[in-house]
Amino acid sequence: MKRVILTGLLVIGAACLILGCGKKESGPTEDQAVTKQTEGREEENEPEEEDTQDGAAQEDAPEADEAETGQKTIGSESADAHRVLLTNHTGEAITAFSVKASSDAEFPENMMEADQKIGNEETVCLYYAPSQAEGAQTSSGKMLRTTYEFSVANESGREIRIAGLMFDDIQEAELCFEDGVGFIKYVSVNSGEEISTKEMALSLQAQ
Predict the structure, then answer these.
(1) Residue 205 confidence (pLDDT)
(2) Residue 81, exposed/middle/buried by CB under 10 A (0-12, 13-18, 19+)?
(3) Are 149 and 171 in contact (CB under 8 A)?
(4) 54, 72, 114, 121: least buried by Cβ within 10 Å?
(5) CA atoms of 181 and 198, how far apart (whole Å)
(6) Which residues neighbour 53 within 8 Å (Cβ) at sequence distance 6 or greater?
(7) Could you tell me which residues come within 8 angstroms of residue 86 by beta carbon, excluding any fewer than 6 positions away?
(8) Pairing of strands 148-154, 181-187
(9) Mean pLDDT in runs of 10 for the chain (207 residues)?
(10) Chain centroid to CA 6
């Protein structure tokens, strides 16, 4: 009987040892699984943070571009104002600029601000709203298109006058001064041809 009881105790002790080892071995495995799952979640979240940072950088970029492309303007933008991009090729900085209809006797006041200058080779955006209805009807019923004139004063005090301009035919133009006369060069909106008013300026000077 003693041998039977002793044998039973040994069997029970061995079983307890086996079960204890099994629990100890399974513990680290469960911890490792939890750790791997946690690491996996952190790795999945990291790209989302990078995307958010990239998106913020892209949203900031247009604002920087707008600041860098700021352009000088003459006049005020409005619904009835003509818009023309003018590039100064007169050889000097422009300090005064005025526009009038050819039928008007005198030029109005300077459209530029007191301390404003348009450097040589610099482009400025001109906004001009006519003070009267464009075009006049003749006795035969035909409409005559209104033409305009520019008065440009350079830094040296020289005044350049340019005549025969039609705003609805000009989007971009070059202000030039050669052979003692001022003129503009542009591509006609209506015909697509390159136009220069230099010959007109020379003929007016000869009169």
Answers:
(1) 86
(2) middle
(3) no
(4) 114
(5) 7
(6) none
(7) 74, 123, 124, 125, 126, 172, 173, 174, 175
(8) unpaired
(9) 52 54 49 51 51 48 43 92 96 96 92 94 95 57 78 94 92 95 95 95 88
(10) 95
